[in-house]
Specification:
The protein has about 170 residues and is of the alpha/beta class. It has one domain: 3-Layer(aba) Sandwich (Alpha/beta knot), CATH 3.40.1280. About 35% of the residues lie in helices and about 20% in strands. Strands 3-2-1-6-4-7-5 form a seven-stranded parallel beta sheet, with helices on both faces. Helix 2 links the parallel strand 1 and strand 2. The two termini are about 15 Å apart. The relative contact order is 0.21.
Length: about 170
């Protein structure tokens, strides 16, 4: 299946993307985000607030070991993570339904830049004060009766689109 070893993965070139989890309650969602991040070689996952950190059996159940390959950091406060990312030159994007948000199918990324996406709490979404500190909001178009998606599903959709736009040589 041409899979990388964990050692080769750690040394491989990464997608210039950091995924920030803002007060995520479900350890299964956290594990799923790690697994998707591994699949697309995301640079790192930032865990903020009440979001659980590895090692944890419930995270491992869905991450299947990706929590051991994907780099991660914990921040007590999401604002600290955003501030850190901006200092490092990232364009920080909340994934949230908000006035002025850019629909994902209209999003145009610059391959020369680094990005971070913030995914919010399962009930409350991204904290409004965090949204206000971001460079932009990204929204996934939805056409049915529901107006939200599961955090892990949202992560997969947005990471895939960012991968398609920022794709690098997979070596």
């Amino acid at each position: 299946m041409n899979r990388l070893t964990p050692e080769a993965y750690r040394e491989s070139r990464k997608l210039p993307l950091v995924v920030v989890l803002d007060y995520i309650r479900s350890l299964n969602n956290v594990g799923s985000v790690f697994r998707t991040s591994d699949a697309f070689r995301v640079e790192a996952v930032y865990l903020c607030g009440i979001t659980a950190c590895p090692p944890h059996a419930e995270i491992h159940k869905t991450a299947l070991g990706a929590e051991e390959t994907v780099a991660w950091k914990y921040f007590k406060d999401t604002h600290e993570a955003v501030e850190n990312l901006k200092k490092e030159g990232y364009i920080v994007c909340a994934v949230e339904q908000a006035e002025g948000s850019v629909m994902l199918d209209k999003l145009q990324l610059d391959k020369t830049k680094k990005y971070a996406i913030i995914l919010g709490n399962e009930v409350k979404g991204v904290q409004q004060s965090v949204v206000d500190s971001c460079d932009m909001c990204i929204e996934i178009p939805q056409y049915g009766t529901k107006h939200s998606l599961n955090v892990a599903v949202t992560a997969g959709i947005v990471i895939w689109e960012m991968n398609c736009q920022l794709t690098m040589d997979n070596s």
